[in-house]
Write a structure and sequence with these properties.
Order of helices and strands: EEEHEHEHHEEEEHE
Distance between the termini: 29 Å
Mean pLDDT: 90
Protein name: Anaerobic ribonucleotide reductase-activating protein
Keywords: 4Fe-4S, Iron, Iron-sulfur, Metal-binding, S-adenosyl-L-methionine
Organism: Streptomyces lavendulae subsp. lavendulae
Number of domains: 1
Number of strands: 10
Bound molecules: iron/sulfur cluster
GO molecular function, one term: [formate-C-acetyltransferase]-activating enzyme activity
Cofactor: [4Fe-4S] cluster
Shape: globular
């Protein structure tokens, strides 16, 4: 890592999921997003506030801690706001294992190339195999695919996942709910109705916990 590569501001990680791309993947969600899409499934991760600060090397080791993991997925929040750190995570991970990399972004690819919103964007784009771009538009959510709405595009920036048989645009959605202590994490692009059911369940648990003790609600 160069001395200039910043630590990442991390909203959450998930080691080993089948809900965010082909194979068994580890997911890194960053904190902070400049967009405010109506219906965003992660509103807690929009504010640009300090969350978990972590160095790329520690994150790469964490994401590979399951030896079966064969891919990384970067989401958020807005990954391109922390592109330099994520590019370094990908680089360090690939020194240990030949993982594929999927990245979500609210920016369009053309904008990322013509006017990168942060200095590390070219390096991150060079590391990404599949980029899912564009803001979420609830009215265009067709309930299918590994993207929230049909305006979002699937860019195979390399051939690594192009012929793996995974239909990024049309496949039925799956999601996982991970419980860790008092935290509930919804992993994946949720099928229709699941997000409302998840919110309702978390609210119900919150109501039963003692006043003043908050149950963190993450997605
Ligand atoms: S770009 Fe993604 S994280 Fe940001 S507000 Fe839109 S849906 Fe939420």
């Amino acid at each position: 890592m160069s001395a200039a590569t910043p630590a990442l501001n991390v909203a959450a990680t998930r080691i080993g999921t089948e809900a965010l791309g082909p194979g068994l993947r580890s997911v890194l969600w960053v904190q902070g997003c400049p967009f405010r899409c109506a219906g965003c499934m992660s509103p807690e991760w929009i504010p640009d506030r300090p969350a978990r600060r972590a160095e790329p090397a520690a994150l790469a080791a964490e994401l590979l801690s399951d030896p079966q993991v064969d891919g990384l997925t970067f989401s958020g929040g807005e990954p391109m706001q922390q592109a330099a750190g994520l590019a370094e995570v990908a680089r360090l991970a690939r020194r240990e294992r030949e993982v594929s990399v999927i990245c979500f972004t609210g920016y369009r690819l053309e904008r990322l190339r013509s006017a990168p919103p942060s200095p590390g964007v070219p390096a991150l784009l060079a590391a990404v195999d599949v980029l899912i771009d564009g803001r979420y538009v609830a009215a265009l959510d067709d309930g299918r695919g590994l993207r929230g709405s049909t305006n979002q595009r699937i860019h195979h920036l390399t051939r690594r996942l192009a012929d793996c048989g995974y239909d990024f645009a049309r496949r039925p959605r799956t999601a996982e709910i991970a419980i860790s202590g008092p935290e509930a994490l919804l992993v994946g692009v949720p099928p229709s109705g699941l997000l409302a059911a998840f919110d309702s369940a978390v609210d119900s648990v919150r109501a039963r916990t003692s006043p003043g003790r908050e149950l963190p609600h993450e997605r």
